[in-house]
Amino acid sequence: MAGPRVALFVTCLVDLLRPSVGFASVKLLAEAGCDVDVPEAQTCCGQPNWNAGDRAGAAEMARRVIETFEPYDHVVLPSGSCAATIVKDYPAMFAPEDPWRARAEALAERTHEITSFLADVMGVAPARRALRASVTYHDSCSGLRSLGIAEQPRRLLAAIGGLELREMQDADVCCGFGGTFCVKYPEVSGAMAADKTECIAATGADLVLAGDLGCLMNMAGKARREGRAFKARHVVEVLAGTTHVPPIGDSK
């Protein structure tokens, strides 16, 4: 029996800065039995516009996304923040009487962050893999607070042989990225990032993992400037066994 037809929404940061996350996502979805497609017409989800108050620009981008992804059974993203934009914000971009409202709501119901999709919808664990490393997990704000993602990535990571999960203090506290927040309030953002890297380092873990590339880049950059020993990876890179790719922020 054929699996569900799933579209991968790659996201801007993954596409431009960390394509290995996209390839790892396709690998995991295919292993789960999905018929995976990566629509070429996809663009930004419109989150920066929406957060900056450009409601018309965000709605225009949302309409393009809705049209592109409507044919699929599910839409999956390796990003809690972009997924939350589609799930929570898209319906709010259109008036109740606007035909796009119903289309936005229908897409929202079929949209998932990838660890939630694998664990909750497909009910699978990663293929048998091993990684001799200690890791700690950062709960990204949008994934945790908007989508309720916390247990799912940890459940999937538990299937990786040799992997030791060390929970950090304040794992659910913001790293200071926050999209445009880090640009508008750099001093506050920097202080928050310093608190986060301190919590990560205190665990003694080799790697910090998360489900949002923006958070990972923020933490990795701060850690590099501070001379911290730990490295950063997207959770799907570990789940898919693609850890041959250099860590985030590492040019080696």
Our count of domains comes out at 2
- The total of helices stands at 13
Structure classification: alpha/beta
Label the overall shape.
Answer: globular
Mean pLDDT: 95
Q: Which stretches are poorly predicted, pLDDT < 50 over at least 5 residues? A: none
What profile does the largest beta sheet have? 4 strands, parallel
Strand order of the largest sheet: 2-1-3-4
Order of helical and strand elements: EHHEHHEHHEHEHHEHHEHEH
Radius of gyration: 18 Å
Give the number of DSSP strands: 8
Strand content: 5-15%
Could you tell me how far the N terminus lies from the C terminus, measured between alpha carbons in angstroms?
A: 44 Å
Helical residue percent? 40-55%
How would you describe what is shown here?
The strands form two sheets. The chain has a four-stranded parallel sheet with strand order 2-1-3-4, with helices on both faces. A four-stranded parallel sheet has the order 6-5-7-8. It is an alpha/beta fold. The model has no long low-confidence stretch (mean pLDDT 95). The relative contact order is 0.14. The chain has helices at residues 12-17, 19-31, 47-52, 55-69, 80-89, 99-109, 114-121, 141-147, 151-157, 181-184, 186-203, 213-226, 235-239, and strands at residues 5-8, 35-37, 74-77, 111-113, 130-137, 161-165, 207-210, 231-234. Helix 4 (55-69) packs across helix 6 (99-109) and helix 7 (114-121) packs across helix 9 (151-157). The longest helix has 18 residues, at 186-203. It folds into two domains: 5-120, no CATH class; 129-239, Rossmann fold, CATH 3.40.50.11810. It is globular and about 55 Å long. It is 49% helix and 14% strand.
